[in-house]
Hints:
Helix 1 packs antiparallel against helix 2 and helix 2 runs antiparallel to helix 3. The longest helix has 31 residues, at 147-177. By secondary structure, the chain is mostly helical. It has helices at residues 12-30, 39-63, 67-90, 96-117, 122-144, 147-177.
Amino acid sequence: MSEIKENLANPGPLGLCGFAATTWLLSLINSGSFEGTNIGLVLAMGLAFGGSAQIIAGVFEYRRGNTFGFTAFTSYGAFWWSFALFKMFFAQDVSPSFVAWYLVVWGTFTLMMFVATLPKNRALQSVFLALAITFYLLAIGDFTSTALITHIGGYFGFLTALCAFYLAAAEVINESYGKVVLPIGEVKK
């Protein structure tokens, strides 16, 4: 009996773009470029693209046997859902220092995921390193009520989004052309 081989699409670019686009919009607020009154669009994006699309990408990474991709995309998809639900329904009763602990937890999870990227490509490493720094800066900003630190965290959020967009573009463009057009810094094994 012959084996049927499935040709599965790479769900990574979908998850990366959902993450990058939503992170970019939130970073516009965190950096001080736009007022917090614009959060509604971030929340809608967080539920639809940042949350749901990443979870879908994660499920498909599971199907491909990619534990890292499954864990990353489903977790950050859940982050966006939790962030949106928090802002929509619960934010008024939560102290800024407890929000800071939420960010520390996500920063620590991201640091763990960054360590898992070390045998992977440099582009992926840059996404997780920048994101860990972003979470920790935003946490410090909430702990200290220092807008400048939060704004710096917002700029690191932009960097994170750009790194994620670059990796998504590299994966789509390189596959489309069948060769490396955008390098991702493969790690030699």
